[in-house]
């Protein structure tokens, strides 16, 4: 949405294609909605290319390369025309950047690999888009709660968003950030890992959930809703009070605002 | 086909995708690591390993070796062939010390019954607190600095380099000449039980380093 | 013991402690084997403590090195360059070793290597040998091959001694007895040392220093009388024929120095072209493995040395599956491994499960890629190993030679799946994946799925899903799941946003 009022805002003149990701689309629609609210508030024009489906990593990471290829093709088709593609998931964005070209090469499709590389270079997780592209850390958010942050593995080590999420959280008015012990250890989700090695996955997530509950926070913030689903599933079962929330949903809320 | 030919043939068959020759590695070899004072750092890092380090001038060396032997409780000592004459004579004169010079005939059992060894060294490495013997004159064959329980090791300040790359550069000549090397960083140690470090397993349990300056 | 003396045998009629029974049976695939580790609370506490300690030590000494990332890149580049022309470097190594007076042997596999070793030991007339800790002799099952030939092989590394006397199997590359605590070690020493040599001293306590002292005493006689020693090598310098062993306790030096005959088993991937290349690896290895600036002892030797150490020096160059890995341009990257264990120590799966579940002497993330590379993906253990990871990627960051472990895990998974498809095994998963792939191939398919899901969200009167039966019980056994929402994002966008834009 570009309007005269957006002039002077950090996102002015920028059109952003929203990569909602399949899991957020179906299971956590509030997260992509928050991304829309937030980016529009910062002056961006947000579009949602409807051809998009999925990053394909559930196939890739389970060893099904040919089955992942349709996702690469739909992604390239949906997003090739945009300067900025932004998604609320370090994991899905990481898969786009780290795996799409490889999958195309494995399939012997060099043309697709070239296109995938080009669009991957313009794909960002919401936190890095705000901090590194728009250059903002204070997005005008208000969230008067105690929160703890779990840096999900793929945000940290594949998308490599660095401390962008923490910079954003620290600038949120009213927010109290509580440090999470063993924050950098995996929650044990790992996609199909949690089904193929259920016992190990449970042992990992039980530890993570305990560390989260030990913080005494009201909210567990992540940049990946599936990791949060994993952790909060255990917390809920144990009658713990920490609620999961995506970073974008905190950033979208303003004082007196309804988001 | 012999195993040799088989293995080499398999290696070659595995590498058919490799067409071009070895490219250069983007690494500058043999560079020093920057530090304020190489010798000070050496003393610091060797001490970190729970070894004793004593600094002295050249003339004080025999006296300092005597002191090391006494303080570690050594009564018998073996000296490698090629040990400094002055040092050898001083130790011979010590009343309560039995001195043997290695002529190659001492067995492992003889060395096991010997309290201490005094050796020279080739290189000291400041960053890692390491002493390297290339087993040249005064440094002895390898068993000498291994079996006796106390190792008094003389390091010349001029032989202390900043870090491993400089050390490897200096030692390359010895290796190419076929000499064995022994790199020693503190006394023998293990962390095999619950990752708790314990000094003193099979090698000398006491490492006493005398750093000779000037 | 002299050659004429009758060797002492234990109650099982063996010269050395029998390994655990389960190592002689086909082991279970990882998910099943992992349960045993997860349920062993003592082992879990031991591992939590030990891996935590070593992780912190590593982080501290790595932070001291300003150019650590450049150093890792150099290690990666040197290994890559060497592996890509391995045949040339191996021929050079053989020439240098021969010139230095060593005898070079080649082994295609474990059987070849063990045959050579047994023959060499028999030629000396000795009935026992001592060993430097080495992964490769574990890999080829050398101790058991020697036992069968009537030769006792004694482990001399403290942790390997604990494992051997404990009728146990190593569970870690660097610290094979990492799964044991001091109390367990004391019991093993008290019960077993006397059966195989010098007994543990009376009143032995649990103090690590006393336990290490008991090992020193137990092994001293063995070192002083041993005529034959067997080692591996951390590095083999092609240019000079120099072998390098990196260790801490001095047991390595004892073995490399006191005996008359020295037999070293060297995997063909251990070659480095020049002496100078050592400057990179001698900085990378100690900091990554024990978390020290430098390990207490590093020995280098170039064939026999006149008047010093073993005069009969043998080197066995071993393939044993390494060329399988080499033939895979991606899998080849795993051959850079210098066996530091940093990936094990940082791995959240390893920390909870322990090393035995991996069914190999190479456990942890590196084992999960190396075993399928060396042994193939045909047997159930090797098929399961690439999936023994949540792909969290912590291992990638600590690997001193920058092996992209999670990428290789995914690559191995692909190989396993291709194998499955070829043999039309387990049709359920491929069918599921094919169906899901169809959904993702076109947004209209995904929309239909989303509509079904949101309809369920609208109609079902529940907020939370608790324990479920069937395959989903694996997830819901300890986790609740929120009910799917009544509207997908796509539906919301169409209703609320399209007009606004």
From TrEMBL, chain A:
InterPro entries: Cys_rich_dom. GO terms for cellular component: cytosol. Coiled coil: none annotated. It comes from the Bacteria. This is (Fe-S)-binding protein. Residues 16-95, 147-231 form the Cysteine-rich domain. One of its GO terms (molecular function) is oxidoreductase activity. It comes from Raineyella fluvialis.
From TrEMBL, chain B:
It holds the Pfam family LUD_dom. Residues 103-212 form the LUD domain. It comes from the Bacteria. PANTHER family: LACTATE UTILIZATION PROTEIN C. This is Lactate utilization protein C. It comes from Raineyella fluvialis.
From TrEMBL, chain C:
Gene3D superfamilies: Alpha-helical ferredoxin, NagB/RpiA/CoA transferase-like. Residues 1-14 have a biased composition (Basic and acidic residues). Pfam families: Fer4_8, LUD_dom, LutB_C. Residues 1-27 are annotated as: Disordered. Residues 413-496 form the Lactate utilization protein B C-terminal domain. One of its GO terms (molecular function) is metal ion binding. GO terms for biological process: lactate metabolic process. InterPro entries: 4Fe4S_Fe-S-bd (IPR017896), 4Fe4S_Fe_S_CS (IPR017900), FTHF_cligase-like_sf (IPR024185), Helical_ferredxn (IPR009051), LUD_dom (IPR003741), LutB/LldF (IPR004452), LutB_C (IPR024569), NagB/RpiA_transferase-like (IPR037171). Transmembrane segments: none annotated. PROSITE patterns: 4FE4S_FER_1 (PS00198). This is Iron-sulfur cluster-binding protein. It comes from Raineyella fluvialis.
């Amino acid at each position: 949405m570009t309007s005269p009022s957006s002039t002077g805002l950090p996102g002015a003149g920028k059109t952003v294609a929203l990569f909602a990701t399949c899991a957020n689309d179906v299971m956590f629609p509030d997260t992509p909605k928050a991304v829309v609210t937030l980016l529009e508030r910062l002056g961006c024009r947000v579009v949602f290319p409807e051809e998009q489906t999925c990053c394909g990593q559930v196939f890739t990471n389970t060893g099904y390369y040919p089955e992942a290829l349709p996702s690469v093709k739909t992604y390239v088709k949906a997003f090739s025309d945009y300067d900025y593609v932004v998604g609320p998931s370090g994991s899905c964005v990481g898969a786009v950047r780290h795996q799409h070209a490889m999958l195309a090469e494995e399939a012997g499709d060099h043309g697709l690999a070239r296109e995938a590389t080009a669009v991957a270079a313009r794909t960002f997780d919401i936190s890095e888009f705000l901090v590194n592209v728009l250059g903002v850390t204070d997005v005008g958010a208000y969230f008067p709660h105690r929160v703890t942050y779990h840096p999900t593995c793929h945000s940290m080590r594949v998308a490599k968003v660095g401390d962008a999420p923490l910079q954003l959280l620290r600038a949120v008015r009213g927010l109290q950030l509580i440090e999470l012990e063993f924050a950098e250890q995996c929650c044990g989700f790992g996609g199909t890992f949690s089904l193929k090695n259920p016992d190990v996955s449970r042992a990992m997530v039980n530890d993570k959930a305990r560390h989260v509950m030990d913080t005494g926070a009201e909210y567990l913030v992540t940049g990946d809703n599936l990791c949060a689903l994993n952790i909060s599933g255990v917390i809920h079962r144990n009658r713990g009070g920490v609620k999961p929330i995506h970073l974008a949903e905190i950033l979208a809320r303003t004082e007196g605002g309804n988001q | 086909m012999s195993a040799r030919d088989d293995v080499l043939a398999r290696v070659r068959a595995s590498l058919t995708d490799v067409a071009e020759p070895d490219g250069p590695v983007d690494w500058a070899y043999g560079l020093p690591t920057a530090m304020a004072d190489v010798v000070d750092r050496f003393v610091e890092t060797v001490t970190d390993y729970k070894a004793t380090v004593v600094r002295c001038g050249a003339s004080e060396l025999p006296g300092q070796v005597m002191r090391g032997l006494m303080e570690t409780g050594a009564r018998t000592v073996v000296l490698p062939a090629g040990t400094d004459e002055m040092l050898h004579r001083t130790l011979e004169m010590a009343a309560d010390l039995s001195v043997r010079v290695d002529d190659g005939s001492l067995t492992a059992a003889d060395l096991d019954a010997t309290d201490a060894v005094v050796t020279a060294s080739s290189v000291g490495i400041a960053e890692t607190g390491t002493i390297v013997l290339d087993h040249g004159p005064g440094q002895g064959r390898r068993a000498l600095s291994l079996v006796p329980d106390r190792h008094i090791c003389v390091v010349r300040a001029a032989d202390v380099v900043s870090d491993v790359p400089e050390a490897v550069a200096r030692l390359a000549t010895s290796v190419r000449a076929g000499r064995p090397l022994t790199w020693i960083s503190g006394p023998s140690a293990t962390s095999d039980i619950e990752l708790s470090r314990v000094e003193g397993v099979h090698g000398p349990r006491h490492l006493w380093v005398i750093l000779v300056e000037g | 013991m002299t050659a004429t003396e009758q060797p002492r045998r234990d109650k099982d009629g063996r010269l050395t402690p029998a390994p655990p029974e389960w190592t002689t049976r086909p082991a279970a695939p990882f998910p099943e084997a992992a349960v045993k580790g997860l349920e062993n609370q003592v082992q879990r506490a031991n591992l939590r403590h030990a891996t935590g300690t070593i992780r912190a030590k590593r982080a501290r000494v790595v932070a001291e090195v300003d150019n650590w990332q450049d150093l890792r890149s150099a290690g990666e580049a040197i290994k890559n360059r060497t592996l890509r022309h391995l045949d040339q470097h191996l021929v050079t190594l053989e020439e240098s070793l021969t010139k230095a007076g060593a005898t070079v042997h080649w082994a295609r596999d474990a059987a070849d290597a063990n045959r050579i070793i047994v023959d060499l030991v028999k030629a000396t007339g000795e009935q026992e040998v001592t060993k430097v800790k080495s992964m490769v002799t574990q890999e080829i099952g050398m101790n058991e091959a020697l036992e069968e030939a009537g030769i006792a092989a004694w482990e001399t590394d403290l942790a390997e001694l604990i494992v051997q006397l404990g009728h146990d199997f190593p569970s870690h590359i660097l610290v094979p007895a990492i799964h044991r605590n001091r109390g367990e070690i004391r019991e093993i020493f008290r019960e077993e040392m006397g059966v195989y040599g010098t007994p543990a001293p009376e009143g032995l306590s649990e103090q690590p220093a006393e336990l290490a002292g008991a090992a020193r005493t137990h092994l001293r006689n063995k070192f002083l009388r041993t005529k034959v020693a067997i080692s591996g090598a951390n590095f083999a310098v092609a240019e000079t024929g120099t072998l390098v062993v990196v260790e801490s306790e001095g047991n390595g030096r004892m073995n490399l120095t006191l005996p008359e005959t020295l037999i070293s088993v060297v995997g063909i991937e251990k070659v480095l072209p020049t002496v100078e290349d050592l400057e990179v690896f001698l900085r990378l290895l100690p900091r990554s493995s024990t978390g020290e600036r430098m390990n207490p002892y590093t020995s280098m030797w170039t064939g026999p040395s006149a008047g010093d150490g073993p005069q009969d020096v043998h080197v066995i160059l071993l393939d044993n599956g390494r060329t399988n890995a080499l033939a895979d341009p991606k899998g080849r990257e795993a051959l850079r491994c210098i066996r530091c264990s940093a990936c094990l120590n940082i791995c959240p799966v390893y920390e909870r499960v322990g090393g035995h579940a991996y069914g190999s002497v190479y456990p942890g993330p590196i084992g999960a890629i190396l075993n399928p590379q060396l042994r193939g993906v045909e047997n159930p253990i090797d098929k399961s190993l690439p999936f023994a990871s949540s792909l969290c990627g912590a291992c990638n960051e600590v690997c001193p030679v920058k092996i992209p472990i999670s990428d290789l895990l995914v690559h191995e998974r692909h190989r396993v799946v291709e194998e499955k498809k070829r043999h039309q095994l387990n049709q359920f998963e491929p069918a599921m994946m094919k169906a899901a792939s169809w959904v993702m191939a076109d947004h209209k398919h995904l929309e239909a799925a989303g509509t079904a899901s949101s309809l369920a969200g609208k109609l079902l009167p529940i907020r939370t899903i608790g324990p479920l039966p069937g395959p989903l019980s694996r997830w819901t056994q300890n986790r609740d799941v929120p009910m799917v929402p009544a509207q997908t994002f796509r539906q919301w966008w169409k209703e609320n946003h399209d007009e606004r834009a």
